Amino acid sequence: MKKTKTLTSLLVTVMLAGVVSACSSNETASPAASAPAPSGATGQEQNKYAEHMTISYAVGSNNLDVNDDDFSKIWKDKFNFDWEIRPVASNNNSETFRIWINSGDMADIGSWNYNHSEYVSYVKQGLLKELPEGWREKWPNLAASQDATGIAKYVSDQVGSDNILFKPIMGDNYPLDTLIDNSGMWYRADWFRAVGAEVKDSYSITELMDIAMKVKQQDPGKVGKALIPIIFPTSDLPHLFIHPNATHYRDVSQFYQDADGVFHWGLADPDILVGLKLWRQAYDEGLLHPEFYNLPGGRETEAQLSTAGVAAMNASSGMGSVGTRQASFMSTNLDVDPDEALNFAFITDDKGAYRGSEAPNFAGSLIFNPKLDDAKFERILDILDESASEEGQKLINMGIEGTDWETKPDGTITNLNGDIQISDKYKSIQDLWPNLVRLRDDYQLVNPTLPQIWRDKGLNQYMEKAKVIDFNNPEIFAKLDPDVYFYNSPARTRAVMDLNAELAGIVLKGPDVEANWKAWVKAKMPLIQPVLDELTAMKKK
């Protein structure tokens, strides 16, 4: 079988590297884009959108107030619709959609954590609505967003139809040729200093365990019994404990090929045990939230550092918008200077190397109820296409021109909201519009309305990680092979599991982590070995 070229080469065609010059100050030249779309619709559009529609959207958000502010009015006036949000717990996305899809009870649109084997199965059963014929010509911004992922055509060709929209992470502003993660932690730099730790942009997990213990013992914030040194939910704890020493633990890289062409399962490698033992140690020593397995991802957990002020470290992506948000909350609620009290860092092994996997250029997807009538489906695709346009992205990420920002005669952009982000100013934005089709990660690298300090951290974490990744060492960096990542068979479908939850279960089963892990591997191998055999045979063809 001819090997499909890796995503690295696919992404090179859609990513450019000239981002640094766009990040010069908080009043900088605007990214190239025309003015946001006007709130009023044309006569032709008014006729097209004469019938008011309510569009249900299943998404990981508890924000139901999405139809009643000035931002939502722009979209409502043009497209004549209201959102009906159906919240999905971020730590239960896969199972929730599995139930809804198979029972026919899914919302009009669903923000789904993509699983290739399940997707193929759903399409074969007619459980997802197919995009209309000619959709690429009719909705060019959606087509461009799918091209940006580098994988949409591969999946379409393999499945034989388009029943999904992937959410691209990066675009023209990304500074590297190979897409790596933006994972890491935001932490209380003032507390680190108070316990004698150096404030840095990267730490080994050994260093962090030591600092967390000192924070617990010395309580530099005078928090008392409420103190939680490390507050990470289950979905992020593997990155803290497993990632520094293991390369093949994620969905994207769990199956890998040795020099002899034989495939192995990364979760059965001894490197995994190193991280699991550290995880259990941190749990036993009281460095983690005692019920980390019940913590939601996102802002609710993040707030324990920036709002409640009881945590020293939290898991959030290294984005300028995240830093801006946490800095604003810290300044308001904790009466500290966030420029001195907040920092972002990524986690390395004890030698300072950052392990990684080449990431596919998407995170999540949009799927559609097969019972959608064509008129509503077209309305939905019109809205999504507008949101993915240059004008729509500028509106979603910067707000309303003249109200939230203005352009000076020299072409620079001035933020009119101070440190307040538009996702906090307009409640309709939060957890909805920035993650609808085009994820905001790419725009955050150049968004002139974000403060320079946090925008730089969002950019620099990629650059600094790249310095300590050996991209040519398969023990440190796993390159993406689409043939493996998108491999589908009955055996592969049976081997689908929530790896984060599985790893947490090993840790929580009891103090003998090694015995727990060995028993788990033994129990899983009857499901895994057929997949390994099939992949080995496929690559030998």
From TrEMBL:
<feature type="region of interest" description="Disordered">
    <location>
        <begin position="27"/>
        <end position="46"/>
    </location>
</feature>
<keyword id="KW-0732">Signal</keyword>
<feature type="signal peptide">
    <location>
        <begin position="1"/>
        <end position="22"/>
    </location>
</feature>
<feature type="compositionally biased region" description="Low complexity">
    <location>
        <begin position="28"/>
        <end position="43"/>
    </location>
</feature>
<protein>
    <submittedName>
        <fullName>ABC transporter substrate-binding protein</fullName>
    </submittedName>
</protein>
